Amino acid sequence: ISPYITSGSEPYVHHILVYVCDGLDNSDTGKGGNCDSEISDNMRNCLSQTLIAAWAVGGSDFVYPEHVAFPIGGPNGEQFAVIQLHYNNPEQVSGITDSSGIVFTYIDTRRQYDAGILFLGHAVAPVMIIPPNTNNFKTIGLCSDPCTKTYFPSSGIHIFASMLHTHLAGSGIKLAHLSTAECTSEGKTAYQELQPIENNPHYDFNFQQATHLPQEITVLPGDTLLLECKYNTTGRTGVTLGGES
């Protein structure tokens, strides 16, 4: 998977997402538009289906391990791919033409394991309010043990790579992995924190690269994933609201 950023668009392309989905027809294709108001309901629904690629500022090529690949097509596969680009143009520069996207390299042999992408974090919404002039404001995103019990296979999932993403106020991100065990003496659930899956206390917005983990980490049903984001708004006089860019 390789990013293709149009020359001159580098200051404006914030991130790129590619989805595959069903439920579209020919009337939905060939038409772009503002994601909030100018696309069909079918297209909008596609943006909540299967994510197959993500790129953000500073990212470069990503190569899957030899035993893993993302399945595309086939008689029962999704029939449409939709690209969503987020632009950041606070100065309202006009006359920009952009053809950025993502280049996929595919093979015709299915590999041992199918890949997938798991999103974990804080909801992107203005209800996320970061106070001004603080250097240690934290938010938490949680994939709880009931969630993993419900949606993860009995053998668990195997995490082989991660990509951390926040905006310019972000200064550190940690993805914690907790196992659960029943505390029989009090009838409560106890949590044990394992080795973090990812921990970057010096996050840099300009280097958002998907990276391979030193070794695969298995997350079992009943485990908990906890994402902690740290923000620094030193020097800002107003609140910072959550948003797309």
Description:
This protein has 245 residues and is mostly beta strands. The chain has helices spanning 41-46, 145-151, and strands spanning 2-4, 13-21, 50-56, 68-69, 80-87, 101-103, 113-114, 129-130, 137-143, 157-162, 170-183, 188-193, 198-200, 211-219, 224-231, 240-241. Strands 9, 11, 12, 13 and 15 form a five-stranded antiparallel beta sheet that branches. A hairpin with a 4-residue loop joins strand 11 and strand 12. The mean pLDDT is 89. Residues 113-244 form the Copper type II ascorbate-dependent monooxygenase C-terminal domain. This is DOMON domain-containing protein. Residues 2-93 form the Copper type II ascorbate-dependent monooxygenase N-terminal domain.
What percentage of residues falls in helices of 4 or more residues? under 10%
In total, the number of strands is 16
Strand residue percentage = 35-45%
Distance between the termini: 23 Å
The ordered string of helix (H) and strand (E) elements is EEHEEEEEEEHEEEEEEE
Number of helical runs?
2
Main β-sheet description: 5 strands, antiparallel
Poorly predicted ranges (pLDDT <50, ≥5 residues)?
A: none
| CATH fold-type name of the largest domain | Jelly Rolls
CATH class of the largest domain: Mainly Beta
What would the average pLDDT be, to the nearest integer?
89
Which secondary-structure class do the elements indicate?
mainly beta
Radius of gyration: 20 Å
What is the CATH architecture term of the largest domain? Sandwich
How many domains, as an integer? 2
Shape: globular
